[in-house]
Amino acid sequence: MIRMDTRFLGIAELVDTPSVAVVVDVMRAFTVAAWAFAQGAEKIVLAGSLDEALALKADNPDWVALKDGPPAPGFDTVNSPGLLRSIDLGGRTVVQKTTAGTVGALAVKDAPLVLCASFVVAEATAQLLRARGSDSVTFVVTGEDGQADEDLACAQYIARRATEPGTDAAGFLRRAAQSRAAAELAQGVRQGVHADDVGLCLELDRFPFAMVATLEDSLMVLRGRAVPAVGSHIRQPSSSSASTGPRNSPAP
């Protein structure tokens, strides 16, 4: 068994800069981000506020801006994987601002390695941690002030999977499916929701890439990093669903 010291913290509990941070937002920021890359996006800029997102969009009209909640002037779409999967993002830059996920990533922007994760990229994230030989990893549980069970379950699964590759996902996915966030999405409590969002957020290892965030010219930029060994066991979409499946894998 590989040894890895792990911490699971809410955003407000971050008091120092971790050496490795894995920022988890299952429902829905980093499921949406993964879908954006699968739909061809080149990069995702994580905005610190709605005003910043709108300013970036104004300065770069060809960028695609998205946010939590209902549609709003200036934004192209909302933070929903079910809605985003039908949008062609080939070569585009996406600007993303969400309530929790982007906030968590920006909170650890000075960490030497920042990964953004959800169940759809869990194995790729675990393999990247394993390959790097990280002996200390801080998992940032972004939802509900660090109490969101879907995020905690995903973080715990990735941590276990990084050190014990035989770890089964069933119990962790069950917790996420029974979480408050899943219920709110399914019941329409949250706005800007597609009926398939919960199911899409619970698709384990749909994509064979991890997502790495780095500072580029003062902006926090998320990019996909292919993990080739992962692709062999990830199901490919059937011909009937090919239009909503991954279009490409981000380059290493």
Structure in words:
Strand 9 (209-216) and strand 10 (219-226) form a beta hairpin. The longest helix is centred in the middle third of the chain and has 15 residues, at 149-163. 31% of the residues lie in helices and 21% in strands. By secondary structure, it is of the alpha/beta class. Helix 5 (122-132) packs across helix 6. The chain has a single domain (5-242), classed as Alpha-Beta Complex (putative 2-phosphosulfolactate phosphatase), CATH 3.90.1560.10. Strands 1-8-2-7-9-10-3-6-4-5 form a ten-stranded mixed beta sheet, with helices on both faces.
Largest sheet: 10 strands, mixed
H-E string: EEHEHEEHEHEHEHHHHEE
State the total count of DSSP E strands.
10
- SS strand fraction: 15-25%
Q: Are there runs of 5+ residues with pLDDT below 50, and where?
A: 234-252
CATH superfamily: ComB-like
The appropriate CATH architecture is: Alpha-Beta Complex
Shape: globular
**End-to-end distance, in Å?**
27 Å
Number of domains: 1
The CATH class assignment is Alpha Beta
* Radius of gyration, CA atoms, in whole angstroms: 16 Å
Strand order in the sheet with the most strands: 1-8-2-7-9-10-3-6-4-5
The helical percent reads: 25-40%
* Arithmetic mean pLDDT: 91
At CATH level 3, the topology is putative 2-phosphosulfolactate phosphatase
